[in-house]
Write a structure and sequence with these properties.
Pfam families: EF_TS. InterPro entries: EF-Ts_dimer_sf (IPR036402), Transl_elong_EFTs/EF1B (IPR001816), Transl_elong_EFTs/EF1B_dimer (IPR014039), Transl_elong_Ts_CS (IPR018101), UBA-like_sf (IPR009060). The chain is of the alpha+beta class. 49% of the residues lie in helices and 20% in strands. The chain has 11 helices and 8 strands. Strands 1-2-3 form a 3-stranded antiparallel sheet. A 3-stranded antiparallel sheet has the order 4-5-8. β1 and β2 form a beta hairpin. α1 crosses α2 and α5 packs antiparallel against α7.
């Protein structure tokens, strides 16, 4: 059996980023064969991924990037199980790698992003699995958003666990950086379910109407009035939960739609994406 030296262990550690003891164990098991040892370490990562597949990932980071011309934005979230892991350099580096890969590949979906080959020929998902073997926790890209518009604004909350992309149209020649950030911050804070009432799905509308009827019925209102009362409550739901109809948190004398139009006539939001890692 080949003698495993400290230099061998350090070499494998440099190649893989795995811990010293894991590297030594892999080299011993592989009888000094570096490629076999690398495969063993990868299998270790897969074993951890399989074992912890059902574990909750309630910590991590959300990152965003907007192109230089401001017309495209990427938003990614890398989640882990515990807060200490979210602070380690290897985790942060992996999150940056994921964002950089998203920017470079312009992947259309999370699946396409994770399948993207890296410089070493392995997929992004394989790199994630490798780090699971080193860290010993489940790691998961919980969201990936890719949005293109006349102008895209982004915002990452101070806890680095919530982020937003805002797509704006009818920009004209206006400087929309400030209003774009304000709207993105609004979305983080107020969690709108859609742009306006036309974007609210039928199931949500039906549920809100039924809730309105039940509340009115509990208040002793006549059956003949329930539908009208429920519609009134639905309109209140639209005002509170659709972005363009929400009151601006920094100035509740105007709605978001009015804020945008005041900034530049006709300016509006065409889409938004909100990503959060929830603990």
């Amino acid at each position: 059996m080949a003698a495993i030296t400290a230099a061998d262990v350090n070499k494998l550690r440099t190649m893989t980023g795995a811990g010293m003891m894991d590297c030594k164990k892999a080299l011993v098991e592989a009888e000094g064969d570096f490629e076999a040892a690398r495969d063993l370490l990868r299998k270790q990562g897969q074993k951890i991924a399989d074992k912890r597949a059902e574990n909750e990932t309630s910590e991590g980071v959300v990152l965003a990037a907007v192109s230089e011309d401001g017309t495209n934005g990427k938003l990614v979230s890398l989640a882990c199980e515990t807060e200490p892991v979210s602070k380690v350099p290897d985790f942060k580096d992996l999150a940056q790698r994921i964002l950089a890969t998203a920017v470079e590949s312009n992947a259309a979906s999370k699946e396409e992003l994770l399948a993207t080959k890296q410089d070493d020929g392995r997929s992004l998902q394989e790199h994630i699995t490798d780090l699971m073997g080193k860290i010993g926790e489940k790691l998961d890209v919980t969201a990936y958003e890719n949005i293109t518009a006349e102008k895209v604004a982004s915002y990452i909350h101070s806890d680095n666990k919530k982020g937003v992309l805002v797509a704006m149209k009818n920009v004209g020649g206006a400087d929309v950086a400030t209003v774009g950030r304000d709207v993105a911050m609004q979305i983080v804070a107020m969690k709108p379910v859609a742009l306006d009432k036309d974007g609210v799905d039928a199931a949500t509308i039906e549920r809100e109407i039924e809730i309105g009827k039940e509340q009115a019925r509990a208040d002793g209102k006549p059956e003949a009035m329930l539908e009208k009362i429920a519609q009134g409550k639905l309109n209140k739901f639209y005002k509170e939960n659709t972005l363009l109809n929400q009151e601006f948190v920094k100035d509740n004398s105007m709605t978001i739609a009015q804020l945008l139009d005041k900034t530049s006539k006709g300016l509006t939001v065409s889409d938004f994406k909100r990503v959060a890692i929830v603990g």
